[in-house]
Amino acid sequence: MTISRILVSGTAALALIGTTACVTDPNTGEKKISRTAIGTGLGGTLGYLLGGAIGGNTGRIIGAGIGGSAGAVIGKQYDDQIKELKEQTAGSGVDVEQIGNQDAILVRLPDGVTFATGSAQINPGFYDTLNAVAESLVRYPNSLIDVYGFTDTTGTTATNQRLSEQRAQAVADYLAARGVARARMQTRGYGEQYDYLRVKTGDNVSEPLNRRVEIKIIPVSQDDVNKARRGN
């Protein structure tokens, strides 16, 4: 049975399932929910995903010492990186997605594999996959990296918020230990705010996959660097 994946927030998203917001992936033929439609339907609640870098770009670009890529180059690097990430993480349960019009790459680490319930300790069996992600981030240095942590609804809201922050930090620490510049990375926990559902096509049953971390890779162009230096 075909599986499609969508990102939703709360019960409002359920109204979107099975609507005309569906699009077809040209590579796989897989039915998905248009992220643009979801963002509109939920009143911008996906801003963490579709918006800019945590804390803004300017200071982070300068602090990280990013050189930037020429306009013609950044598009090719983006395509190359997303292709390589998909190949390197194939079969691991990781989702690699394009965000916007080459605005960012999202690497979603799988629910229940990266972390156990109530834990911020990365499962050792997932190290090889994270190593591949780290190698990609090192090979393509002209980007900012946001790491987001999430939990399911087990436990109190306050506990889940803290746990989500710890999960994001654990992944950032691991990437830094594998050579990714710490200055490129920022972390944030969202607790149990954002559900991620795997929906069976033609079914009304959805499975929440919320014990996860997402890595958002935001390419930096030479124009971005120039603006940052001017304080724009």
Q: What would you note in describing this structure?
A:
The protein is of the alpha+beta class. The chain has a single domain (3-230), classed as 60s Ribosomal Protein L30, Chain: A (2-Layer Sandwich), CATH 3.30.1330.60. It contains 7 helices and 10 strands. It has helices at 35-41, 47-50, 58-64, 71-88, 127-139, 157-177, 222-230, and strands at residues 3-8, 22-24, 31-33, 95-99, 104-109, 143-149, 185-189, 195-200, 206-208, 213-219. The chain has a 5-stranded mixed β-sheet with strand order 4-5-10-6-7. Strand 6, helix 6 (157-177) and strand 7 (185-189) form a beta-alpha-beta unit. The relative contact order is 0.21. Mean pLDDT is 78; it is low at 1-6 and 8-45.
Report low-confidence residues grouped into runs of 5 or more: 1-6, 8-45
Taken together, the total number of domains comes to 1
Number of helices: 7
Beta strands, count: 10
Query: CATH topology, what is it called?
Result: 60s Ribosomal Protein L30, Chain: A
Largest sheet data: 5 strands, mixed
Strands of the largest sheet, in order across it? 4-5-10-6-7
Overall pLDDT level: 78
Strand content: 15-25%
State Rg.
17 Å
SSE order in H/E notation?
A: EEEHHHHEEHEHEEEEH
Name the CATH superfamily classification: OmpA-like domain
